[in-house]
Amino acid sequence: MRSLLFIAALAGTSTASSWHDLGIPRSSSTVDVRVFNQGNLTFDNTAHSFWLPNLPGREDIVAPIYSFLVEHKSSNTRVLFDAGIRKDPLNLAPSVRQLFTSGIAHLEQSGDIVDLLTAGGISPASINTVIWSHAHLDHTGDMSRFPNTTELLIGPETDTQTYPEFANASLVASDLAGRKVTKVNFATAKLTFSGLKAIDFFGDGSFYLLDTPGHLPGHLSALARVTPTTFVSLAGDTFHHVGQARPRPALQKSIPCPAHLLEEAKTSISTDYFWSPHSHTGSFDLSSRSQQFLSISVLPDSFYADPIKAQVSLEKVATFDADPDILVIVAHDISVRDTLPYFPKYLNDWKKKGLKEKTVWNFVGKSNPANLFTPLNRTV
Q1: How many CA atoms lie within 13 Å of 256's alpha carbon, on the beta-carbon side?
Q2: What angle do CA 130, 134, 135 make, to 5 degrees?
Q3: Cα–Cα dist 3/275, whole Å
Q4: What is the pLDDT of residues 53-72, one digit of tens each?
Q5: 23 in Cβ contact with 193 (< 8 Å)
Q6: Is the full-model pTM beyond 0.85?
Q7: Cα separation, 280 vs 269, whole angstroms
Q8: Which CATH number fits the domain 2-246+292-364, given the four candidates 1.20.120.140, 3.40.50.620, 3.60.15.10, 3.90.550.10?
Q9: Cα–Cα separations (whole angstroms), residue 163 to 99, 150, 157, 184, 308
Q10: What does the pLDDT look like over 172-189, one tens digit per residue?
């Protein structure tokens, strides 16, 4: 735990005033981005494996499952970033199937990403490339439902062993069979954004792949330029709860918390578990809190393969979160589940519509499902 106190120093701190100061080049090229929510994946009694502290009564984790359709019109190319989860989880490899057979995991889903694409008039055959942020079951989807012409792009250290050839593999043979599979080589990256190695996917500054290791070997994320001066960060599982990245002084400065949420936070955040310089017992003061509420789990059963590297990646992505021109969306952010503009709507005009200002602090609201900062009173 002591080593985590030095993570911010390892990652470096930024006083950047704009995305260009983070190392992102200027460009007039853009992509269109649309988001799908495939449903909810619930894990019983596992919140401690994702973040700490885990307050009494808050042991379960409910995670929406987001996938992103990225369209590069100038090349007539469609990319799917994260394929979500397959609709028949009992056909997963045994090593991950047991999450469902044991009753730990529960899936609430009307259809997988192929069903959602097809219902929206998007043929799976029109998807040129599927990009996995990493190879966990809620990001890999069912690749057998895409034609072999759809390529697969994965992180450099992704484990490509498949079941049944390898008994303990988390992937199945159909995830990779018969299609071109490419591992991103960040060693060739010529760009660095806030300490993150970046590769220009289309070569025109519209869409970047970022090296964000820690959650799983080979974990990557993306940065999409949706207007010449605004971006959407597709952060994958760099973190799982926005309270692992917020609040921070830079975010407080660039996008102050609205007054009504500051008021709600007085009683929606327990002073038995959280504190700030101007807090009083029973009355939490959010405006003077400079440290994020939650940390990445370092317990033996952590869902982060390397918590130290994961925290460094989080610190770097947090500089994006503090930039008013970058909208950060992690793959399971329940705080925005009810406010994201889903397909067929576009995320390109998020800045014009004030989406970040409207949502970035919602996680501290009393009624927001991401507010896990007060113990639940249980009655037997």
Answers
A1: 7
A2: 90
A3: 21
A4: 999 999 999 999 999 999 99
A5: yes
A6: yes
A7: 12
A8: 3.60.15.10
A9: 16, 21, 18, 23, 30
A10: 999 999 999 999 999 999
CA neighbours within 13 Å on the CB side: how many for 62? 14
Distance between CA atoms of residues 178 and 214, nearest Å: 29
Contact call for residues 83 and 132 (beta carbons, < 8 A): yes
Residue 2 has pLDDT above 80, yes or no: no
Cβ atoms 317, 242 nearer than 8 A: no
Residue 200 DSSP SS3: strand
Domain boundaries, the chain: 2-246+292-364
Q: Residue 263: which H helix or E strand, with range?
A: helix 259-268
b/e per residue, 296-324, with b = 16+ CB within 10 A? bbeeeebbbbbbbbbbbbbbbbbbbbbbe
| pLDDT tens for each residue of 341-377 | 999 999 999 999 999 999 999 999 999 999 999 999 7
